[in-house]
Amino acid sequence: MKSIGKTQLVFLAVFIILNAGLIIAAKPEATYREAADADQYIKPAIGLIQYGAIVDADTPDIPFTFKPPLYSIFLAIPLFLFPWKIALVAVVVIQLILLYATGLMTRGLIAPFLPRLKTLAQAFVIFNPNSLITAHFTQSETLFTFFLTATLYTVILFVHKVNWKLPILTGLLAGLTALTRPMGLYAIPLFPIAFGIFGIYKPTWMNGGRGFKSKKSLFWAGLLATLIACLTISPWFLRNYLKTKTFLFASCGGVYLNDQYMELVQIGNGWSLLKVCQHREKIVQKYLESHDIKNWADLTEIEQNRILLDIFDDEILAQPASSHVKALLHSWILLYLAGGASNFKNYLGWAGESLHAFLISEKWRGCKNTWTLFLRHQLGNRAYMYTILVMATLIIAIILRLLGLFGLVFLFRREQREYGLLFVGILLFFMAIYIYLGHSRYRVPMEPILAVFAASGWYVLRNFFGQVSQKSGHPNSNST
User: Fold this and answer.
1) Which residues contact 10 (CB under 8 A, 6 or more apart)?
2) Please, what sign has the CA dihedral across residues 61, 298, 308, 269?
3) Alpha-carbon distance 328 to 442, whole Å?
4) CB atoms within 10 A of CB 86
5) Regions in the chain scoring below 70 on pLDDT
6) CA dist., res. 292 & res. 266, Å (int)
7) 419-431 burial, b for 16+ CB within 10 Å, e for fewer?
8) Number of other residues whose CB lies within 10 A of the CB of residue 161
9) Cβ neighbours of residue 358 under 8 Å, at least 6 residues apart?
10) What is the pLDDT of residue 200?
11) C-alpha to C-alpha distance for 93 and 291, rounded to whole angstroms
């Protein structure tokens, strides 16, 4: 216990020093100015402070429905208590506390089957470059990851301590997860499956070695969690219906589908981002003319959302299968291997052009050729620090994913197969949600699970090389 306490003190000291250095070295107001989609959360937060309701501060007469409210409420607290610049620092500090807490809960995800690897799994979360830099921006991923990890932790706790308060807590946390990012909504119906996975093989180590009397206990726990989650999010559904006369959770689906389409045709068809944007404008304009819609700006946010869903649902399905395959492979590569170097560059104000900006003017030439051109472009512009950071974060991501592959095999062994099914199911869920939009910050909610895989892989390799070393050090007595 003393060694664990010392380790935590060392972790905490390094964590504080590292992040304090980043905060000091950051560009002025980089937490907000360099954060993608920041206004989607900041403006409702300011609207909440100024008008006492979840509204965009620029259009207070129109109810805000684009995103669920929890992250804006989270931001509103420091924005209300402190001046702007201090409030931004406070947001970063709170999110770093949440990141560290997420690392502590990750210990609970791996503890049932590899308790000695808890510290390593925690380190893979709190010192992960991607998660670390994301916590420095006004983006909802850190809060979302905290609630998601807490939800999984309570599921695992219930498996070992059959306490019926835990599914209630699971449901509450799941509801808060959905109220932070809308994708959490789609996970709520899956809880009976998530709990039920642990009853497939009836392992005797569950519930203190006694096992469950019935698989129905797990199913009912999942159903209870789903019910509580639905109750948690229902006030937001009701509010949106009363304000708009439309039953919806968030009106960002059309924009999300629009982004999916743009990524699909850019990567799948090999177009530059500039060409994609021009083509997209033609498609939308053609739709508006065919439906006698004079001015896009006159439409409500909900009407715009419906139109975008209608347009790009058909456009995505119309693309050839080869384009889908190329775009999916590209998305998965970025999702699992992008290291967040561009976020560091933007936050610290280093020279260099992000891959996203580079692709605006460059045609996609395949993964290898595009990356070669990208690195040459950075070196040509003397963006040396950024180039080094790109390579370093890429190498870290590759090492962790390779370890994760060994961990994947380990987790599907008989003793911990239920965890393998649960964790792989979560990764597949995110891949299904993201589809073509695989980016580094979208991997942040997946990092605790990936950390468990990587730590498990380290265990496998350590044992393997330990056995090899032991055999080589103790030759057979019959050999000469």
Assistant:
1) none
2) negative
3) 15
4) 12
5) 1-4, 201-214, 352-383, 468-480
6) 29
7) bbbbbeebbebbb
8) 11
9) 374, 377
10) 73
11) 49
What is the 3 state secondary structure string of the chain? Answer: CHHHHHHHHHHHHHHHHHHHHHHHHCCCCHHHHCCCCCHHHHHHHHHHHHHCCCECCCCCCCECCCCCCHHHHHHHHHHHHCCHHHHHHHHHHHHHHHHHHHHHHHHHHHCCCCHHHHHHHHHHHHCCHHHHHHCCCCCCHHHHHHHHHHHHHHHHHHHHCCCCHHHHHHHHHHHHHHHHCHHHHHHHHHHHHHHHHHHCCCCCCCCCCCCCCCHHHHHHHHHHHHHHHHHHHHHHHHHHHHHHCCCCCCCCHHHHHHHHHHHHHHHHHCCCHHHHHHHHHHHHHHHHHHCCCCCHHHCCHHHHHHHHHHHHHHHHHCCCHHHHHHHHHHHHHHHHHCCCHHHHHHHHCCCCCCHHHHHHHCCCCCHHHHHHHHHHHHHHCCCHHHHHHHHHHHHHHHHHHHHHHHHHHHHCCHHHHHHHHHHHHHHHHHHHHHCCCCCCHHHHHHHHHHHHHHHHHHHHHHHHHHHHHHHHHCCCCCCC
Say what the pTM is.
0.91
Say if residues 32 and 88 touch (Cβ distance below 8 Å): yes
> Treating both helix axes as pointing N-terminal to C-terminal, what angle do 341-348 and 384-411 enclose, rounded to 10 degrees?
140
pLDDT in the model for residue 143: 98
* Tokens read off for 450: 């990936």
User: What is the spatial distance between Cα 41 and Cα 282, in angstroms, rounded to a whole number?
Assistant: 30
pLDDT at res. 391: 87
- Distance, CA of 173 to CA of 226 (rounded, Å): 11
